[in-house]
Every structure is written in C-alpha cells, then in structure tokens.
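User: My advisor, Dr. K., asked me to get a structural model of this assembly before our group meeting. I'm new to this, so sorry if the format is off. These are the inputs:
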Amino acid sequence: MAPKKGHLPLLFFPASGEVLPEPLGTVLIFSSWNFPISLALDPVIGAVAAGNTVVLKPSELAPACSSFLAETLPRYLDNRAVKVVTGGPNLGEQLLEQKWDKIFFTGSPQVGRIVMSAAARHLTPVTLELGGKCPTIVDTLSSTSEIKITVKRIAGGKWGPCSGQACIGIDYLLVEKKFCTMLVDLLMKTIRRFYGEGAKNMKNMCKIINKHQFERLQNLLKDPAVAASIVYGGSVDEERLLIEPTILLDPPLDAEIMTEEIFGPLLPIITLNNIQESIEFINARPKPLAMYVFTKDESFKQQLLQETSSGSVTFNDVMVQFICDSLPFGGVGQSGFGRYHGKYSFDAFSHEKAVMRRGFFPEIEPRYPPWNDFKLKFIRLAYNFDYLGLLLLMLGLKRN
Amino acid sequence: MGGEKEETSSKPAFDVGAASELVGKLRGAFASGKTRSYQWRESQLKGLLKMTEEHEQEIADALHSDLAKPELESYIYEAAMLKNSCRLALKELKRWMVPEKAKTSLTTFPSSAEIVPEPLGVVLIISAWNYPYLLSLDPVVGAIAAGNALVLKPSEIAPATSSLLAKLMGEYLDTSCIRVVEGAVPETTALLEQKWDKIFYTGNGKIGRIIMAAAAKHLTPVALELGGKSPVVVDSGIDLKVSCRRIIAGKWGCNNGQACISPDYVITTREHAPKVVDALKQELEKFYGKNPLESKDLSRIVNSNHFFRLSKLLDDDKVSGKVVHGGEKDQSKLRIAPTLLLDVPRDALIMQEEIFGPLLPILTVDKIEDSFDVINSGMKPLAAYLFTNNKKLREEFVMSVSAGGLVVNDTTVHLAILSLPFGGVGESGIGAYHGKFSFDAFSHKKAVVYRGFMGDAAIRYPPYTKMKLRLLKALITGNFFAIIRAIFGLSKD
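Assistant: The format is fine. Below is the predicted structure of the whole assembly, which you can bring to the meeting.
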C-alpha cells in the first residue's frame, strides 16, 4: 500500500512525485462453477486487500458451494462491506444494470461479452478471466523416464482438475506422428492406473457438473467422423454424470470438438509430421489462456515464446503456473484481459493515483504569457534539459 | 486502401470493407514478425522524432490553423512533449523489452519463472482535437515501443493537423505496419466494427461508452483517456500571486481551457474568495492585456459548435449576475475572453458538465475542508489541484480525493512527469500511459514457467491418499514443521 516514488526532471525542482494505490470503491465479482470456492474467494482477497466493498455472485450451477459461501462468509467477514448474493442469470442481469467501480468476471467468452457491454454503459473497468483451447505440445522425447514423467503430468493435468472442466486444463495435444503410438500406449496405461477403467469403475475423478454439460460433451462425440477417431474410452455413466477419460486420434479439425473449448474429459490428439508445425497450428486459432510444451529443445522453446501468444506458457509441466503467486494470471485476446494472483490481485482492484507536490518557490517566469522570443528559447532549452544552454541564455551569452 | 477522406460519391468512402481489408493487411504484416524486432521499433521511434524536429514549423502552422494555438504552446505541449516521449522510449526500450524474473515457491520446486512482454498485435488509436499532434502520437510511441502494428485515426475537428499527420507519417514511418485513417463518424464506425487487439481512445465519456461497447463485441481491451471537472481548491495563507499564475497557466495557458486536465472550477472559502478573484483579475491582465480577445497568446475556441455550447453556459439564467470578470465574445473569430464567475449555484448548467473552455466558476464554502466533500460528491475527475501551505489539509486531500492524478501547489504539470502514470478513474477513464506505462498499455505480460523432469513428486498424482493430502497441505503453506510431520506420518489429522 506504500506509494511508489517517481523521478522528476530538475526543471520542476523542488517537487516530489509518487503513485498512491487507492481502492476503486464498490466492486462486483462473478465466479464460475468449476472451482467454485477458490475462483470466488481469490478475487475477493484482492478486492478486500485493496480496500473495496464487494458483492460476490457465485455461480448458481454449483449450488452447494454457492449456499455455503452465502451462509459462511457473513460469519467471518464484515457484513456491511462484503456481501454474497445467490441467484441465476436474472440476478446477474439485474446486477449488471448497476454502476460498479469494477467488475471481475470468470467464465465463458460469450458471457464475458455481455458483462463488458453492460460495463461499457457506466465506463466500468473490467477484468475478464475467460478460457480457450489450451494446447499441449509434446515434442518427441528419447529418455524413457522423461517420457513417463511427461505422460504422468499430462494424465494428472488433464483429468485430475475437475475432469477437464478447467480453464487452464489441457484441451488437446499436438504430437509428431512417429512419437504418437508410444505416447498413447503409455497414456492409456497411466489413465487406468490413476482413474480406473470404464465409466462404471472410475475413481479419482469429478463428475460432469450437470446434465446440460454432460449432453454437450456427449454431442461432441456424436459426429460419426469424431466417433470414429476414438481410440480409448468413450463410455459414460449417465446416472452419475461420469464420462471416462477418452482419447481421440486426429478428429476432423472443423468438428466442434476442435473448434470449441472442450471443458471435459475428452482429449483429442493431433498428429503432425514435424513438431515445428505446431506453431502455425496454434497461431491459426484464438489465443489460449495457457500453453503447455514438453520439450528439451531450447531453441524451440524460444521460438514458441516469440512466435505464439497465450495468457501463459509452462514448459515441461501443466497447470503449475496457477500456484505461482508472483506470476500474473490472466488471458490475452479471446482468453480475456486483466490479471490477478498475489500482488496482481491487489492491483486489479486499485487505482494508481499519480500525486505531485510542489512548493511555491522558485518560480519559472517563462511559463507565463505574454510570450516572447526569450521565453520561447528558455522553454526550448528547459525541455531539452539543456541546463548549460539555459545558463548561457540567462547570462545573455547564447546565440541561436 | 486506407487514408481516404469522406468526399463526394466519386471517391470510394472508407467503409467496413475497406477497414476489414486494412486490418487484414496489418495482421499479415504483424504475423511476419516485422514489428517485434528491437531494430524496427527503434527505427520507427527515431522516425517520429525526426519527423517532429524537421517539421516543427509546419506543425505549429497546422495547430494555428486548427486552434489559433500560440507558438509557445505548440512548442511545449505538442512538439517538445512528443520528442521527450520518443527520447525516453529510445533510451529505455531495451530495458523494457527484457523479461522480468519472477520468484518461484517450494510448491513448484525446481522451476524458474519470468514475465515476458509481448505486443498485443494490431491496435487502433483514436485521438482528440485539442492537442491533436501530441494526443495522436504519444499513444503511437507506446504502441510502437511495445512492437505492435497500428492504425491512427486523428480527430476530424482538427483537420489541418489530421492531414499533416497523414502526410508526414506516410513519409517517415513504415506504412506496411503503421497507417493513418482520416475521417469522421462513418470512418470511425467502420474501424470500430473490426477486431483489434487493443483500442486506445482519447476524448469524452459519451463516445468512450460507444467505443467500449464496440470493443466488447470482440473482447478487445480498451484504454479510455477521458475528462471531467478538474477542481482547484485554493486555501488561504498561501502565495496568492504565484498560485493564481499557475491556475491561469493551467487554464487559459492550456489551449484556452480546452484541455482534459485544465482547472475546471475553483473552490475557496467565502471569506477568501474576493482576494482570489482580485488576484486572478490582476494576473489575467498582466498575461493577456486589457483586450484579451485580441491576445495572440490565447487559443481560439475550436469551432462554432463549441462556441455556442460555451455561450449557452453563460446565458444560463442561474449564472446571470455571477460574471465578475470577462464574458466578452467575438463570434466571427470564435473567441471568448477569460471569464470568472463567482458563487455559481451547483445546479447551474456550467457545473453539470466539463466546461472545456475559458470560463472559470468559483464556488465558495464555509470551511476549506468542505471542498473535499464537494469534489467527492461529483464524478471522479481526471485531475484535482490544491493550493495550500497546510500540511494536514494537504495530506487529507491526497488521501480522500479520488482523481486520475493530483497536484499540490500547481496545475497540469504532472503531465510532463513521465515516471507518473497518466490516466483517469471512474468517469475520467480506464487505463494509463506515459513513459513505461505506455509500453505496458500496449503489451501482454506473458507468464512463463520453466520446469525440468527432475523432482517429480508422486503426491501430485492419483490415487489420492490421506498422506498425500497432508503433505500437499503442508507444502503449500510452506510450514517446515508441518512438512516434517507429514513425511513422518506424525500429523494430527
């Protein structure tokens, strides 16, 4: 909360400049259903740290967590300053009609547009934490142990977090054809070990949040060309809303499973002749929230960093950027704008106010009209920080 | 082809098709990687600098044509500030482009992390008419420094500067990546339909809303540099002469009050007000003479629309009898004399909107501390000013008044401090720029984590056991003893 000092040119001496963070005022936070506790409270932490009053509207699609927050938060926080409101889209619309000093939204791009349009009416700044299709590039590796670790990380990172219903979850893989078979074999073994086999016997996985999402995911597989590309899994348990980890090999690129964010336990694998092609593949699509790359090729790493854009990049692992509080967490392009986590959360809910203090003495006459040649020369030299020139001018020794 | 003015039906208008084609070309240029190299950015910044230096007289002439802007103002506020902006960017660019190291924690050990700045892509800059050279090119400096391709749409209300910019930028800069589109509402609308990676707008709140709504359709981030009613609180027990000179310099010395951070109105105590009025009158006469309508050191009102808008503020019944100085107008020359109004009611027209002209209302309060409530009861302005020697009052002002920026004992000068962010809050805007803030405004700061294959902890993976959960909890809290307990199975739960 301490102000940051700014550097002042000698021309304004004596003066001091600083940047003072101050709360924006009353802020609105919308959270999503997939990590309904952390994605609700993490922004609240930033808002409160920055000194704002807060209205939190958790997602109605995670009703147990939503009620929990509504009942429990008032027992621990200052009720006059932090409020939880529960409800569905109607409530959301009503909230959006109000004038807020900031709106923080986590969710889908479609709703993100609605939130930003509503905010525009009041010139309310927004942070939009959206999603996208997070690609995972798997370069051809030679060391067995490294391949094992890679596969474990992919298996853990895809289906572990909420069965793939995560904004930074792995959406699809990009692999060289020659490496694909080995990778898929090992992946299948690892999946069985971690999660069991078949939808009826699954363990360690979340269910799909509701029937609507369940049917959406099932529909992704209905396209015959897509169904034909399934090489593992595909079974479902409709009663318990479970879908088994499913791997698809080269589904058609224009199918919905490859054009929309999957947000579920289906993993398409796209094979390439050369891993370099992954750059063009990724750049032809909207900027994702995260990009994961398994490789030991240092120049490929730099090439990816320079030639692609995403919210974040993680090399040789998945998801971990989320727990690094010194890293900004946010998207770019279709995956959103603004960022938070750690100090970035404080900043997201602050206004950085510039403050300059001056004394009454000394006075610089040439600032004031009526203007003449001398004053003009003076100001020119002053703005060029040409102090010697200024001295000469004052002494009548400057020729120009 | 961009850059076509809206003319008679013989010339094709710059419509949505033309805008789409232009953006497509710029995306191609950006995708080629051209704008990302340090060399390209440096060359373009040098081009801007050279352009400003070699055409200073033409720039002053265009500004004089558009606004009757005095030469010194053209020099300080337009040319010199832009040159300083370029010079700072050239000096610091290498440093700005370097990734920033970030700390990593025990939970991701071993790993390293950094934050890599990258250009957003193709950006749109829409500028204003009051400082048409500076407000067009200052954001361009940021966009170029950050490595973007861009389209600049200067304001049509300053036509001489607009066409000068189109001409000069075509000559000095890389037109495959940097383009100027001139025009008015139709051309701007066509541009706003396109998908940009950022839109940077300088102007008023009404248009700002339209821009943000258009940006929302494509989830485009925006920076809006708007305005507001920037108040000046004048305490007693100060050097009144110096204070009034600084107020005058900030008000009439800045484009005759047509500046976003110009003092809009003064607040002082009832007791002190007559002294303030007298001091202002005295200094105004010293600066502009007995016939300010004839003074060459004042800009004119930009056009007849604004002239009539300002006249209406003076014709308002609620302010009749409140004019204590000035009030003269010359419609043929679009000039209004520096005008002081004392004790205007809060519901007068002149107190409802940003004045943006040479009229200065003076509000009075009982105690000087009351002025902060007056300010905070309105929309948050772009700037707020206080003249005082009272330390306590000064600190209360700084802590309790919310505005884009604050200056104590001067007006407008914070604009020149490039290490301070320049931007609004609330109605006065979103985002900030100047100096490194300009570079940041047009960059995406990409978080990058590097991990190796060593140190793979089984506790991350299923099957999840109580032991793994204990250890993970302990690791995340970083509590050394908890970690030991968890490893040795000594935890309580």
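One thing worth pointing out at the meeting: The longest strand of chain A covers residues 15-23.

User: Perfect, thanks a lot.
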